[in-house]
Amino acid sequence: MRNSWIIAMRELKERLVSRSFILMTLLGPLVVLTFTYLIFQFGGKEQQKWHVLIVDPANIMEQKIMAGEDPNIQYSFANNYIEIEQFAKEKRFGPYDAMVEVNEKVLSNKSCFLFYREKPSFTMSVNIRYQVERRLEEVLAKEFTKLSVSEFRKIKQPLNFAFRNVYDPKNATGDLAGWVGLFFGAVIFVFIFLFGMTILRSVSREKTNRVVEILLATAKPRALMLGKILGIGLSAFIQVFLWILIIGFGLYLMRETIFVDIYDASNQVEGQVSDYNQFVELVFDRVQFGVMLFYFSLFFAAGYLFYGAFFAALGATSGSESDGQQFLIPLILILCFALYAGYYALENPDSPWTTFLLYFPFTAPVVAMVKLSIGFTNGDAYQLFVSLFLLLAGAVLVIQLAARLFKNGLLQFGHTLRLKNIILWLKVR
Fold this sequence. Notes:
The chain has helices spanning 2-16, 19-42, 84-89, 106-109, 122-144, 149-155, 178-208, 211-215, 221-258, 275-286, 289-317, 325-347, 352-359, 364-374, 382-409, 419-427, and strands spanning 50-55, 73-78, 98-101, 111-116, 160-165, 168-173. With 429 residues, it is an alpha/beta fold. The chain has two domains: 2-40 and 178-427, no CATH class; 50-156, 3-Layer(aba) Sandwich (D-Maltodextrin-Binding Protein, domain 2). A six-stranded mixed sheet has the order 2-1-3-4-5-6. α9 packs antiparallel against α11.
C-alpha cells in the first residue's frame, strides 16, 4: 500500500501542474455559469394558456391560489373526488387542460399530482408548481405554525409535485428538479470519462516508453494500478471541489447582484414572477444542494473506481497507444447509455426498469442522482443505499479482474489486442 500511495502522489503532482488541468478548472465553471445565466435570462419563453381544474374535496386551499391573476392560467375548483379515468374520458371535463389533485394527505406527505392532456412547457410546469406550492405554504403556516408565511418559507421543504399523463397515469414524468439530478449525473460521467482517459493514456504511454519496466522493479503491478487510479482520482476530486466552489460563488453573486429582487413582492406584478425568476426559484429554492452534493461525492467516488479500473486494464493490455481504440468504443457507448438511462429515469421515475438501472452498476451514478433529486416515495429511500452498495461491490470486483489484466498484459509488447487475449489473461492468476 505504501508503494501505491507513493505512485498516487506522483500522479497527483503531475496532474496538478499540467496546463490542461488548470485551464479546465478555470474555464469549466465559467462555461457552466454562462449557460446558467442565459437560462435564467432567456429560458422558458414558450407560452401556453391552460385551464386547470383543482380537485380539493377537503377545501384545503379555500378555492384560492394567489392574489393576482396569471394571464396564461385559469383555475377552477371541484369539491368532490374525481377519478383519473373520469377526467380523461367524460365530456364535461373536456375544457380543462389539466387536473391537480389536492387531497387531505398533502399537508403531511407534501405530495401533489398534476394530470395533463398535453405535456406542459417548462414555463407552464414551473408556473403551476410555484403558484400551488405558494398557496399550500400559506395554509401550512396558518394551520401548523405561529410563523409568518415569509418566515415559514425559509424552513419549509419543497412540495413533491409529480406531472403525469392523464391517458397513461402510471408512466410518471420526471419532476422538474430531476433535470438538476440529470445534470449532476452527467457531470459525474463527464469527469469519469476525462480522467479515465487520463489513466488509459498514462498507462499506455509508460508501457510504450518502457518506463513501466523500471516501475515494476520496485512496485507490484496491483500497487502500480491502484496508485494510478487513486492519484488521478484525487486530482479529479480536487478539480470537482474547485468547480463547486467557483460555481457556488458565481451563483451567489448572481443572486446578490443580478437577480437580487426576485423574491421581493414589491417587484412582482400581481403575484406573478418573470420566466427567469422561476428558473432561479428552481435552482435556489427547490434543490437541496447539501444533500445532492453529499451523495454526488459518494457516487462519483464509487463510479470513478468502477470505471477507472476498466480504463487502467485497457491501457495495460493494449499493444500500443492506438491499439485499444477498438475496445474503447464499447466503453464510450456504455457511458452514453448511462446518460440515456438518467433521462429514462427522469421520464419514468416509477418504472421497474428505472429501479433496475438504479441497481445496475454501469448506470447507477446518474440514475441515483435523478431519483434523489425527484425524491423517493415513503419507504423507498433504502434503494439509494442498496444502489451505492452494489456499485461499490461492483467496483471491488472490477478492480480484482482489472488487476489480473494489468499484471498479465503490462509487459506484453508488439501484439494486437484481441478478445481471446483478454479471456486468457483473466484466467491466469
